[in-house]
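Fig. S4 source data, part A: sequence.
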Amino acid sequence: MNRTSFRTAAAPAIATLAVLALAACSSGNATEGGDLSGDAGDPSTYEGLNGTLTAGGASSQDSAQRAWIAGFGTVAPDMTVTYDPQGSGAGRENFISGGYKYAGTDAYLTDEEGELSDATENCGSTPIQIPNYVSPIAIIFNVEGVEELNLTPETLAGIFAGKITKWDDEAIKADNPDTDLPSSKIRPVHRSDESGTTENFTDYLDAVAGKSWSAGVVETWPKDFGGEGAKGTDGVVKSVADGQANAIGYADASKAGDLGVANVKVGEEYVAPTADAAAKILEVSPEAESASDTALVYDLDHETAESGTYPIVLTSYLLACQSYDDEATTDQVKGFLTYVLSDQGQQIGSDEAGSAPLSDELRTKAQGIVDTIGS
């Protein structure tokens, strides 16, 4: 299994960052670039924490989880946190069964398939759901001779629905009149596994291009639409990058690497998938109907025409129980979630994973929910 652990499996760059940060915290000086010098919150929150905390879920959060685990090691050095990025669906399943003490998911819990009720039964009370990671879902591409690509929602939906099959299709040419597009066949790549990223992407397509996208909102890609499947975020990126050219896919922007990323039309402009543009969507989006005093969840306004807002956004959540059978686990979960929401935690997530830091207002609301753990 591909687990992320501060003690045993942190990426070399993150491990180095954690060591530098520890030295910086000890001396009271900030390190330069991607540092951990921000406020981690009340030190007493982390006093006495030890043991192992096992979690997993959304692969989109993997880079951020690595960063958070490394940073958390500087404030709770006697604790080990492991995160298995096997996907949102598996994360929710393992949380509901009790295998994970907290989980990452790109889709909040509902009772459409009984998940919320099952999680409530496992926890003994309504589970906590808080946003912790906001990032654009980039439309990644690898097309011969094309460095910049503009796409309207309708064109994007047509490509992934299998209706637009050539790169020099009139619809794509209309979006890119000054680009020399090849006549090559389009190779669309999608997630083959149950995926919150797919759910967020298809939620966008369903909202803005319903005439071209007939599959609705799904976590598992509709077979009728064809395309090439790849497991996990890394699998999609690898397939677009390493396979034959003329491919297009969707993935968390932090994983795009050197691939091209398309600009998506919003209102009268084409917007790039930057963290700042992604963060703006929460400012214009309402809380979901199922939001409560323990669930800070949102229904994204994909149809916004607000200037500078990127509309295909992955808002990922952390799931946790309000209480656990033992005090140690309760303190571990509360401590780690507090770190993630701290100024330091949000900054390292942005520096290392490209996520958009939560606004102060949103962090305050989320922390208020975390503070109820064990109370």
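Fig. S4 source data, part B ends here. The first strand starts at residue 4 and ends at 5.
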